[in-house]
Fold these 2 entries.
Entry 1:
Amino acid sequence: MNDTKILDRNLTAGKDCDLIELDIEGMDCPSCAMKIERRLNKLDGIRIAKVDLANETAEIYIEKSGPQLFFIKNEIDKLGYKAIEQNTDEDEIIAEAEKQKARSLFKKKILTAIALSVIIVLLGMKDHLDFLSFIPMDTANWLSLPLSTIVVFWCGAKFIKGFLADIKARSAGMDSLIAIGTLSAYFYSILVMIFPEISGEHHHTVYFESAAMIITFILLGNYLEFNLKNKTHYAIKELTSLQAKKALVLRNGTESEIPVKKVKVGDIVFVKPGERIPVDGIIIEGTSSIDESMMTGESLPAERSLGDKVLGGTLNQNSYLKIKTEKAVNDSMLSKIINMVKDAQKSKPKIQRIADRVSEIFVPIVIVIAVITFFVWFSYIGQTLSYSLLKAVAVLIIACPCALGLATPIAIVLGVGKAAENKILFNNAEAIENVNKIDTILFDKTGTLTYGKFDVKNVKSINGFSSGEILKLAASIEQYSEHPVAKAIVVHYKSYDSPFYEVKNFFSTSGIGVSGEINGKKYTIGGANLLNNSNKRTGAVTSSRSISIFENNSKIGEIELSDKIKNNAPEIIKKLKHSEYEIAMITGDSKETASEIAAELGINEYKAQVLPDKKQEYVTELQNGGARVAMVGDGINDAPALSKSDLGIAIGTGQDIAIQSADVILVKGDLENILALFKISRKTISIIKQNIFWAFFYNAAAIPVAAGVFAGIGLTVSPVMASMIMALSDVVTVVLNSMRLKYMKIN
C-alpha cells in the first residue's frame, strides 16, 4: 500500500523524466487504451506511458533524450486516434476547438447513418410496402449498395481504422469485432449480387441493412455513452471553474492584465471586490472578507488582513486587496487539489486490473467462438451460408466488451468526484478499495479530535519570577514557532501590547520543545516530553495542557492551556464503534491529559507522550497484531505514521494538509467527513462489483443466444438486434448504474 502513495506527479518515473499529458480522442474500449499503451511503451526514450479510458487521457514520462512530442502524437494518430496537447491557455482553446469540430463531424455521421439506414431498410422491405413495390429487387439491392458503402466506410470509418490498426499492432479490440461483422455482411451481400448461386437460397437475400444498422446503432450508443461520460467529470469542471483566467499585476511600476499562468512568484497582484483571488499569496495591503467555502468547506467568510495568507480560487467579497504571490499557479493549493482529483480518477485499483486482463484475452476468444459458430451451423448442422454467417456476425457484435472496460473507471471517476464535492480528496484509486478493508482507526488528538486552538488558562511563576515575566520570556521565544501552542501563547501576550525580548539561537525539536537565548541566558520551553527528560524531571503535570519554561536546567514557570474537544467528536467516535471499528488514540501530551480526553470520548485504547517519529511504531504494533489501520492526523507531525498506516487520512484545512503523506485528505476539518469517506468508498466499490458482475453476466448470457444455442426454442438474435443490445448494454448496465454515485445522499 505504502509504495503507491504519490509524492510528486513529476517524480513518478524518475527525476530525469518530463511529463507530457495528452487528450486522446476515439477510444471506445479497454483494448484501445491498452493498444496505445503498448505502442508508446515500446518507443525508445519513453520511461512509462499510462492511458486512461474513462478520462480519455494519456500520461507519458519521457527521458531527456527521448522522442519529440510530434513523433509521439504521430504514433498515436497511426493507431487511429487523435492526440491533443494541453499546456497553455492557447493550447486549451485550440484543443477545445478541435474537440468541437470532432463532435460536429461525429453528429453529422450519426445523422447521415440514420437517414441512409432508414432508406436501406425501406428498400429491403419493399415487398411489404405498397408504395415501393414497383422497384425490382435487383434494383433495390443496387440502390442499397452505394448507400451502405457510405455508412460503412465513412460513417463507420473509425471502426475500419481501428481494425487496421489492430492488425498492425497484432491485437484485437472492439473495433475488430465491429469491423469484421459489418464487413462480412457487406462483402457477402456484394458477392451474392454478383454470384447469386453462392447463397444456396431460392431468394438471394442481401444484408446491406444489417451492415448499415449495426454501424448506426453502435454510433448512437457511443454518442449516448460520450454524453453520460462527459457528465461524470463535473467535479473537475467545478474545481477548474474556480481558477481565475486573468490577473492584474504590477510590474515595473505599471499595472497590466496577464494570463494567470504567467504570474510569477513575487508578483504583486491586485484583486477587486467580487473577484476570485488568482494566486496563493500574502496580503500586503487591504482587509476583506474571503469566501473560502469551495476550498475549505467553511460556510462563513473569513476575515483576512495585512500579513494573512490567501488561497487562489477563493472569492474576495468586499474590499480591494493587494497580494504578493507566494506560489506559481501550477504549484497553488487549487492546482494540487485539481491534480489530486485527476490522478485519483486516472489511477487503477486492483479490481480494474483484473477486468483489463480479462478484456485483453476476451476479444480473441470471441473471434474464435464466432468462427466455431459459423462452421457448426454451416458444416455440421448444414444451414445455408447466409444463415451461418449471420450467426457468426451476431456473436461478434453482441460480445463487444465495452461494458467490462467501463465497469471500473466510470465508477471511480464518479466516486472520486462525489468525494471531492464533499471536500474529500483521494491521492489514488487504491485508497478507495483500502478504506473498505480497514478495521482499526487510530486518531491523533490535537487538531483532530480537538480543535487545536489553545487558550492560555493560567501562568504560574517559580523562583521569584513574576507571571508577566514568564509570559514575556515564553512568547518571545515561541513567536518563531509554528506550533498551535506557540501561537496561542504569542496571541495571548500580544493582547497586552508589550514588546518582545530579542532572541538569539532559536532552536526547535519536533515533539519536544523550543529553546533560545535571551540576555545571555538559555531558556527551554516544552510539555510532557520535555519533562520526561532526566535533566528536567519535576513534579506532576496538571490535566490541562501544561507548558514548562526552564532557565538553563531550573524550572522557572508553567503556562496552562486548554484545548476543547470538537463538538461532534463523541458522536462520530460512537458511530464508528457502532460500525464495529476498533478505535485508538495517540498523542504527545501527558498521560493525564490523554486519559482525560480518552475518557470523555469513550476511547479505551490510547498512548500518551509519544514523539512524532515514534507514532509509526505504534501503527506497526497494531499491524503486527493483525489490524488493518487507518491513521487520522493533522498531516504534518503525523507524516511518518500516515505513511506507515494501511490508510493515511490527513484532516485539516487549506495549506495545513500534507498531501505527500496521506492517501486521503479531508480538506474540511470536520470529523463528520470520516463517515462520508467510508460511505462513499463502500458505495463506489459496491457499484464497481455490480458493474463487473453485470458486464460478465451479460456477455456470458448473450454469446450463447447470439450463437443460436437456443434457436430450437425460438430464442435467437439477429445482427441488427445484437448491435442494439450491445450499444445500450454499457449505457444501461454500467454508466447509468454508476451515475447513482453522483446523486447519492451522504447524510
Entry 2:
Amino acid sequence: MSLVTLTDLSKTHGAQHLFAGVDLQITAGRRIAIVGPNGAGKTTLLEMITGEQDADSGTVTRAKDVVIGYLRQEVAESKGRSVVAEVIAGAGEVSGIGRRMGHIERELEEASEDAELEELMAEYGRLQDRFQALGGYSLDAEARRILAGLGFAEGDVERDIGEFSGGWMMRMALARLLLQNPDVLLLDEPTNHLDLASVEWLQGFLADYAGAIVLVSHDRDFIDAVVNRVAELNHGRLTEYTGDYGDFVEQREERIAQLERQALTQGRKIAQVERFIERFRYKASKARSVQSRIKQLDRMERVVVPTEHTKSVKFRFPQPPRSGRTVITLADIHKSYGDNVVYDALDLQLERGQKVALIGPNGAGKSTLLKILAGVLPFESGTRELGSNVRVAYFAQHQIEALDPSNTVMEELASVGARLTSVEQRKLLGAFLFTGDTVDKKVGVLSGGEQTRLALAKLMADPANLLCLDEPTNHLDIASRDVLEDALNAFPGTIVLITHDRYLIRSVANVIVEVNGGTATPYVGDFEYYAAKRGLDIEQRGATEGRATPRGVEVVAPKPRESASDAARRKRSQAEERNRRYRRTRDLRAALDRAAHEAEQTDAELAEVTALLADASVYADGARVRDLIERHNAALDRASSLVEERARLARELEAAESEALVSTG
C-alpha cells in the first residue's frame, strides 16, 4: 500500500526551473535517499510531501490518516522546559492524553461532590485505557533511551532546552521525531550535527524502523547503511534506482550508456528525416510527405543524455611554502572553561605531510584542540610552538557566522585577498562557481552551500601549509565533496580535520587522533588501522612492543627478566586483584538480579492497579479510587527509577567484566 504518491510534479521558483514530471511512490518499508546537486530542489520536494509547499502542477496523494514526520535542516530556538519534556511533547496524541490525565488527577484532589467525582473518574478510566494502549507508560524511558543514543548525558535530559546550542537543538528535534514514530520519516541532512558514535546509533535505530524513510543526505556511508533505493534529482528530473549509493552509481553509468546508444540511433533517424525535408521542401509533389515528416519530428520525444556534469567545486590548493619537518608542538597545555577543565598537561606533535582526523564524542574537546592548533584560542598554561616556515589557515565550523552578510561575494574575498589583483580574485571565485553577476550578490542571500564555497575560497586566497578544517563538507553536495577530497589528498602540506563524514576520513586521513577524557591519542595509520587498534581489549605482547607517537611507531625494548621473588609478589598481587574483581562482579550481578526482581513486582502491581481502575464499579468508592491513583503514580515513579538503576548496574557490570577480561588476557 502506498503511503504517499507523487505524480507528475513540477516546480519553478521565480526564474529558476527546479523539476518537472516527478513521480515517486513511498510505501511502508521503502527507504529512499534523494541525492543531487545543491539547488536541485531536494528540500522543496520534501516540503511538497508534507504539504508545506504546493506544486505548480501534478498531485501529491497521501493515504488516509498517514502520519508524516519531518526533520528540517534548521530548527527554531526555544526554552522553558526540560530536554526530555520537549522530546515527549512530540509524541502527539499520547502526550496530550498524559497531560489530560495529570489535569484530572489534580481536579480529583479538589473534587467534593460525588457526581463530579464520578464524572472525573469515568473520564480518567477512558483516558488511561487509551494511554496504556498507545504505550504511554514506557514513553519516558524510550525518550531517555533515544536521547542517550544521540549523545545526551544522563544529567542533561532534565536541563532547560534554552541552555543548549543549535547543534544540540537539532538532536532534540531528531529525538522528538523518532519518539513520534511517524508512518513516513523525512530526514533532511540528519547527520550534520552528530558525532561518529551518534551516527552509528542512528543507523542502527533506522535499520529497525518499521515505517518508510525519505532521506536527503550527502553522507555516502550513512546512505549505504540506511536506504534500499536512491532517487537522483538532477537536470530537472527524478530518476529512481534500486539499492544503495554504490548500486546507484553503477546503474546510473549503465543507464547513461544505454541512453547514449538510443540517442545515437535517434540522431541518425532525425538526420535522415531532415535530409528528406531539406531535399523535397520546395517540391509540390512531395509537399504532403514533407509536412508529414515535419510533424513526425515535432511529435518525437528526444532522448536526453545527462552528459553535462554537475557543476561542483573544481580547484587545487595553491602550492604553499615548504615547512620544516616538525610543523607544530603542543607541550603541557592546560585549557579550561570556568570550572570545566578540557585539557590538563596535553602534549601533541604533528609533522609535515600528516593528514590528521580528530575524532571523539561531542563535547570531548575536538574543536577546542583545533582552535589551539590554529592559534585562534588562548590557553591558561603550556606552550604552542610552530615549526620553521609554518603558516596556518583556519576554516571555522560555523562559517555563516564568520562571513559578513552585508558584503558582496567579491568584497568578502577581498577582505582576506588584498594581495590578489581583481582579475585573480574573479578567477579564484570562478573556481568556486561564482561567475558573472553572482560575485555581486550579498553574502546574506547566499545558500548554505554557497557560503561554504565562499569560505573555502577565502581559505585559498592566502596559501598556508597547515590547514585546520572544522566540518568543511557541511552543506556541500556529494560531487563537491569528491572534489574537496581530491584536493586534500593532493595537498602537500599538513592538514588537521574535524568531520563527521566517515568516507572523507577514510579517504584522506593517514593519522587518527582520538580526543576523549582530556587526552589526544595519536594512531599513525588510516581509519581502518585505528578501528582495529581500538577494537583490541587485550595488551599486545612479544619480544618488542610498539606505541603510536607523532613521529611514527616507537619501538620499546622488552622488559628485563624479573627475579623469582618479584614474580611471586606479582602473581600474589594479580590473584588478589582477580578476587576483588570477582567480588565486585558478584555484587553487581546480585544487585542487578534484585533490581530485575523488583521491576517484575512493580510491573505486576502496576498491571493490578490498572486493571482495578479499569473496573467501573471501583469509582463508587472515592477514597479507594484516590488510593489506587496514588499507588498507580508511585508504581510509575518506581518503574522509571528501576529502568535507570538497571541501566546503571548493567553498564558497571559490563565495565567490570571487561576489566577482568583484560587482566586475565
